[in-house]
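Researcher: Structure for this, please.
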Amino acid sequence: MKNPVNILKFLEASADPRSTVIVGLGNLDRADDGAGIVLAEQLKVHYSDQVFSEKEQSVESIVLYLLERNDAETFLFIDSADFGGRPGEVRMFQVEDAKRFVPAFSTHKVPIALLMELLAQRGKKPILLGIQPESLEFLGKMSISVEKRLVLLEKLLKRFLRIKSSGYLCSGHFYF
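Model: Predicted structure, token format:
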């Protein structure tokens, strides 16, 4: 997305904020790979019933727990994803996109693309918000480009979670 507002428009068109759960993924020991967890932890302060983090438990445990909740319809996974973009660039992947662009190998026990496919088969709407890492250095510091993007994403996601109804229609690939 060249314009960050497109992320907000995409989410507004794709999901009801009242039935959206956010799951932050990553590895805090590997520089930018911890971006999803860092963002989720920031959002959890205000939205503890809708935001979950791999920091406390595995993504598989989170998904199993959320599948039991009838109010969880859209699953927004936030994770570092190397899709060949500029450091800090963000792209939104739906199930078909994730199967094509997100590698089958993963640092997660169950690859995110497979989890997304299983959720879709159960009638849920999985979306991956991928953040292009600059560094995955072990015990490295998060890059400035990813840190800056997280500040913007936190604002956008807080705004989305406060929205009571959506009114935008969007289609296509979204990235910035």
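Researcher: Any notable elements?
Model: The beta strands are 20-24, 51-53, 74-80, 90-93, 125-131, 174-175. The longest strand covers residues 74-80.
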